[in-house]
What does this fold into?
Amino acid sequence: MAVNTFSYWEQTAFVDHADIIVIGSGLVGLSAALHLKKKQPALKVLVLERGFLPTGASTKNAGFACFGTVSEQIAAIKRSSEDEALRMAGYKWRGLQRLRENLGDANIDYQQHGGYELFMDDEIEKAENCIAHIDSLNKLLAPAIGEPVIYSVADDKIPQFGFNKVSHMIYNPFEGQIDTGKMMRTLLNKVYNLGVLVLNNCEIQRIEHRSDQINLTTSQGNFKTGKVILATNAFANQLFPGLKVIPGRGQVLVTKPIPNLKLKGTYHFDEGYYYFRNINNRVLFGGGRNLDLKAEETWEFGQTDLVKNKLTAYLNEVILPGQNAKIDYWWSGIMGFGEDISPIVKQVEPNVFCAVRCNGMGVAMGSLVGEEVAELAL
It folds into this structure.
């Protein structure tokens, strides 16, 4: 346990008692802090982050708005119900609008080029099943966004993108993409300007209740607060093992710039387990978690040969066939999943609240999840 060695100035200006401490400086945590200060500007809000940058997925995701593909919607209905699938579609859509409203499209480089679900040559039956569900899904989900046509067949666009081994595509004009780095920098600046303090490299080791306050033991010393918001998503049950959050590592690559890149938009295949998009004349491509789900249920960052080899093969054989694209970046992010398709937003102990388990769709729902837990804390 670290011993407090703070100076008088550090103690009074940085680490003295906070009204609310948010654990985790990702999209959900900072959205919670933003909402707290908007509702009650006099609150002293402190955010503690264990990483140099936000640990997890907020600065490591692929920047997809994640409305959801046809196959993902079918799977969601099977796991829950039509009513729940509609509720979550509306929740993600409203969450994306809130993100845009809070930060501004230009500041996050929001682009709504639409999204495509791809089906390979050996997935004819799966493609036909999804196409058969288009009309019913459009009717079911229309109330979520107020538009009658969400999904439509787009097989005619396969040649213009230059894909190989792709037999069918389904288009969704409401899918968007953002620049994750710009999003997080804009959000950080926003909370800074409202007087929120964010301290990095500060890992929470223990949360203890003491009379009328909560004491946080951290790698940098002790902090006192009245209330705590836990916004660590995939890492939530490291502090609260009872929370049903399963980590899921997503491995991602970005190519070197590609002259005359034909791709524009977001693309998914294999029920959303693989995803790619354009970014600055490059291709960002990630996924493959389903190749070994158990191995990817980890809090460890890194890559595996199994996933890297599969992503590289798909890149060169399907997405950019014959172009021998060069890879410039590899990284991974840790997402939080669970059996339920809804996030967990609740009180876990007196004056301790959590907002976790975004099921890989934090960009879409994170702003609303953060606001919900802030309201609970207030």
In short: The chain is about 35% helix and 25% strand.
